[in-house]
Structure formats: C-alpha cells, structure tokens
Amino acid sequence: MNRETVVAEALKLLDEVGLDAVSTRKLAKRLGVEQPSLYWYFRTKKDLLAAMAQAAMAPHANAPLPTPEDDWREWFLDNTRSFRRTLLMRRDGARLHAGSTPTADLDRIRHKMSFLVDSGVPERDAQVAMLTASRFTVGSVLEEQADSSPGDAPDLPADSPLIDPESAFEAGLSLIVDGLTPHITA
C-alpha cells in the first residue's frame, strides 16, 4: 500500500457512496487495513480529502497549457469547459473540489495568467475572470450534481422552463467572456 493507492481507493469509494459517506473507517476496510494505518499517509481526513481533490483534478491539470498563438477567448472557453468536465467525472466532484487550494498547480495557474495578460487582458481583470469562471463552474456543477439525485426532483409547474445544465453553463460562460472582452488592450 502507498499514498497513491489510498487516494485511488478513496476516489472509488467516493464514486460509490458519495462524499458524505466517505470515512476513513470505510476506506480502511476497503483496503484491508486497520484505520490507524491510514494516518501514516494522511494525518487527518481533511488531508485525505485534499489529496483526493488534487487527484480528481488530474485530467484538467494535465490539459495542454495555452501557447502564444492561441486565441485567448477560445482558450478561456476550452479551459473552463475542461474544468467542468473534470468536476463532472466524479460523484460529488464539485463538493470535493470546493474550498480546496490548488497548491500543486500554481505554476500552471501562473502560466495561464501570463498568457491572458500577454493577450491584452489587464492583470486584475485576468485574475477576476479566472476566479469568476472557477467559482461559476464549481457552482454550476454543484447544482447539476445535486439535481441529479434520483427521486429528489421537485414537482414543477407545467409552464416552468426546463433548463439544460450544459446550455445554462455555456450561456453563463459566454457572459463572462463577453464581459471581459471590452477590457482587452491589444
């Protein structure tokens, strides 16, 4: 057993039972070890959850970084969509990610910020846009994953509009990009 195995099994457990039911007791049983042996790898459940959040974000964290030839708008849209797809890959992916600190991803974040600034986005606007897109995405996925719980859907009036989560996400993402566009200096 090693740290990566513990995290991989914890993510499988998350997908099976959901975030509220993930426990070190269940994880230890799944791994065939005593619960205290998990503390060799993670001092607290919070440390385990942080490692799970980082591992769950690997598909997005390994996506290609922007190049100087890329159009900032297309890259921004693709980057945010990649983030959304990654959150949706895991049961309760948005809840797992919410509040996590991307300490292992700081160089990639700096690269993305530099790309936006080099593309003519004022630095403060680039920071706010990235933060806004991130929080919008987490919130959208959080709502989408909460709505997907079987049997929990409220009875809506017949004239209530049905909103497809992906269409709503795309519309909101377009508003973020459209709001940023007038600030471009290049």
From TrEMBL:
Coiled-coil zones: none
Claim: Cell division is one of the keywords in the record: no
Superkingdom, natural source: Bacteria
Entry annotated with the keyword Transcription: yes
Domain named HTH tetR-type: residues: 1-60
UniProt xrefs under InterPro entries: DNA-bd_HTH_TetR-type_CS, Homeodomain-like_sf, HTH-type_TetR-like_transc_reg, HTH_TetR, Repressor_TetR_C, Tet_transcr_reg_TetR, Tet_transcr_reg_TetR-rel_C_sf
Protein name, as recorded: TetR/AcrR family transcriptional regulator C-terminal domain-containing protein
Organism per entry: Streptomyces lunalinharesii
